[in-house]
Structure formats: structure tokens, C-alpha cells
Give the backbone structure.
Amino acid sequence: MGDDRPVLESRRRRLTAYLRHNGERICRDAAVLTTWALLMTIWVQGYGLPRWLCYVVTFVGVVGYTHVTSPWSRPYVSPEER
């Protein structure tokens, strides 16, 4: 098939491989989204805007971020995918 990723049987080994492969990306995404949520909360409270607007702006920002960035990848193949 052309897929040169290893087949990992153990769930623990799959989780370890996934986190090792995507760990930096997961931390960066969490930092960006946390910063966005914090900035939007400060902005909404600073201008005295309604609280629901904070939720809407934060949600739109998170959805936009997920559309702009590429998804996390798996460096392995599960036994079920063979």
C-alpha cells in the first residue's frame, strides 16, 4: 500500500508514540488556544461587553484555528487498520 508506518499492537505503545510524535504540537496548540481565550475574556470584560459575546468570540477563534492548522498525525498503524 505504500504506508511505511509500523503496526503497534499495544495501546500503551501507540499512546507513547503518538505523544512523542505530537507532543510539541499539542503543547503549542494548547498555549495558543489558552492565550486566545484569556485575551478574549480580558477584552470582553475590559469593554463591559456581554458575557455571551466572550463565548461566541472564543468559539469562533477556536474553530478558525482548527481550520487553519493541520491535524495531528499518527506515526503508526493500529492492528485494526491492516
